[in-house]
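#struct-help
A.M.: can someone run this one for me? Single chain, 262 residues.
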Amino acid sequence: KLDPLSLREMRKKLENEESVSLEQAESIASDCMDEIAELCSDYIGNTVIQKLFECCTEETKLEMLKKITPHLASIGIHKNGTWAAQKIIDFTNEPKQIQLIKEYIAPYIPLLLLDQYGNYVVQCCLVKQDNQYIFDAIVDKCWEIGQGRFGARAVRSILDNPTITQEQRVYVAASIVQNATLLTTNANGNLLLNWFLDSSQLPGRYRVLCPRLLPYLSKLCVNKLGSITVQKIIQQSEEPDAATLIMNSLSEKARSDLMTRK
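D.P.: on it. Structure tokens below:
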């Protein structure tokens, strides 16, 4: 087992980019290989792994990945490991490497997004080819992710990321609409509703959202967060028919309540 002193020596060599040779980096990778997954979460070891992925050949990176990726999700939620995980993803370029990461990260996307460290690991995967699995996971667990403090903010960051396609943005937006009544009354989920209404610029968004809210309008209007969403729809001028629909529904509800009291 590599001790802290050995790891510090390795780090020192790797950090001296002017003098470290490819052969030396490869030799250090070989020395670390047996315990490389464990080193990713070590407070010194994680920095060594980061440097190895910067310095080593693609073949060596693939060999390291084969040992690391089965544990990548758990590494990604560790306070030290997350830095190694992010650097590993940043420095993987070959299709085989990316496929390995996808294979082991994909099942844990919702849990990673909900984690204070793990959500950054998922965001690193965005810039890699074939990132659709991230959006499939978000859509599948939209409410569960959206109600989380880190989950909602991570999804919003993903939606604002310029590397994603408009189709992916619309795909997630549709899921936000489907879960609108739950999201709009949740402090974290409301961030996604705000993105949908204020930032997405999707045409017809108010009109699409209205039918989801109408059955619960009376409850939303007496909820602090829900009432803000209703107010936004009423006050916007982009789609006046959506505002009219809400106002008419409120008027009908008020008339109905008056008749009931009589």
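A.M.: thanks! Residues 204-261 form one domain.
D.P.: also worth noting: The mean pLDDT is 93.
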